[in-house]
Amino acid sequence: MNDYRVVLTTTGSHEEAKKIANTLVQIKLAACVNIVPGVESVYRFQGKVESSEEFLLIIKTTADAFERVRDAIKNLHSYDLPECIAMKISDGSTECLDWIKAEVE
To answer: Which domains does the chain have, with CATH numbers?
Structure first.
């Protein structure tokens, strides 16, 4: 079951979120990307506490594709330090996991 990942990143605009999501799906690095609007992020960056409205991307992919997803996010993203966190999918429906595997190269 460790073959699958959910990757999280955030963007500052809906347009950028759509660009990253569409690219990842089009180049078969993700089976699906959910874009969640209205996320408020509170974080420390360069010694200062910041707060901003962002769009959360929930990316479904495989373990084998993660490094390419990470690199694509870095190349497509406008942030100097884009979030890119992968979490193992420990379980899921066989049909859904098979679909992810079939959609990601």
So the answer is: 4-103 (3.30.70.120)
Cα(first)–Cα(last) distance of the chain, in Å?
17
Distance of alpha carbon 36 from alpha carbon 15, whole angstroms: 13
19-61 pLDDT, tens digit per residue, is 999 999 999 999 999 999 999 999 998 999 999 999 999 999 9
pTM for the predicted model, two decimal places: 0.94
Cβ neighbors of 89 (< 8 A, separation 6 or more) are 1, 4, 5, 6, 97
Among 24, 4, 5, which Cα is nearest to 85's? 5
Question: Considering only CA atoms, which of 9, 66, 68 is closest in space to residue 33?
Answer: 9
* Helices marked H in the chain: 14-26, 66-76, 94-103
Q: How many CB atoms within 10 Å of residue 85?
A: 10
Burial zone of 90 (CB within 10 Å; 0-12 exposed, 13-18 middle, 19+ buried): exposed
